[in-house]
Write a structure and sequence with these properties.
The chain is of the alpha/beta class and 445 residues long. The strands form three sheets. It has an eight-stranded mixed beta sheet, with helices on both faces. Helix 2 packs parallel to helix 5. The chain starts with 9 loop residues before the first helix and ends in a 6-residue tail after the last helix.
Amino acid sequence: MPDFATSTSPAVQHQLDRLWSLSPGADILGLERITTLLARLGNPQDRLPPVLHVAGTNGKGSTCAFLRSAIEAAGLAVHVYTSPHLVRFNERIRLAGTLIDDDALAALLAEVLDHAEDIGASFFEVTTAAAFLAFSRTPADACIVEVGLGGRLDATNVIARPLVTGIAQLGVDHQFFLGDTAEEIAGEKAGIAKTGVPLVTMRYPAPIAQRVASVARAAGAPVSAAGGAWLFSSDASRLSYKDAAGRIETPLPSLAGPHQPENLALAIAMLRHQNRLAVPVEAYRTAAETTRWPARMQRLGHGPLNDLLPPGSELWLDGGHNPAAAGMVAATLRHIAFPGTGRAEVHLILGMLSNKDPAGLLAPFAGLATTLHAVPVPNHEHHAPEALVAIARGLGMIANIATDVPTALADITAAADPAEPPIVLILGSLYLAGEVLAANGEPPD
């Protein structure tokens, strides 16, 4: 789907306008264009600090966030490349701990676009080239790179020899690009495997694990999978991790959700299966306690949107947009709404891009959500709110259309019992999540 990025910086906006005039305006996979573009720029991808490369259907962003926190807690400087951005394009490129500033970003985009005019490079390919160019020019001890889409043909997969690679949770998403089955998608994600480079993975069902192992074996990459090379468990207060080098215990992650211990464990395993970065045990504990990752079961603070709800309400935000993510979010929300004594009314505000599966996303919330308000996703092709309402009603929810998120919140407030403050979750799109964060005055930093 096109990414209609905008900037308050005129210099950055000028380059984004140039990018859209040159870009094909659609998701395209393949390494030919990015390879040609990077060659014209002097192959900056060959001059990066040690790279930790992360793929996955869900959880790869959280894993990158845990990796960054642990590396920085070890006193090391790390670059980070993630996507998409939520509020500011700058969020995609973090240089040695700090988001790239507007002047540097504008200059980088101009340099890359000057070399890209006849290539037909996509939005993501130009962004990737700009990130690698920035990373190659700024000293750091490590570099975390999140795969954009898939793995094998993703623009980030031009790094010949990363330090370590990792694959987070796998599921079915982006079928048009990656295949119709979980096994096919797993094979595409495993395409980041490189000769002699450790590939660290979650524990998957046998057919998926076999496909990942087959792709890794063909690439000559050793696989270290959860349940074999490393183990983890969690209880109500802590995470326990174990591998051949010993055992580690950390607090539970500060990120909400029963799936986050698994993402933290994957980050620990990736760092424990490489030998160039010295990360002490205490750094993992710090990562568990301090990691933040916006729009992933984020409880919003006081702001213009939150203030539309009755006192005592909870306003949550998650950018999840596929069935696997929905299952984890619903489990988290159930724990929040039903803490053991009583229950709170749960209301969903949903906006989804047109290439996503609304029925699959909503199914886990059946019997949990009391109402749903369907909204458009501004400036993006999205499912009609009327269609989302029909699906929600089919699942037994009271569902209505709202013109935007503030209207939906006002409607929820108007119907709420003042004695029972509601719990509200906004979900379905990271693009919608970005609009919400900006409107509530909580942009990522």
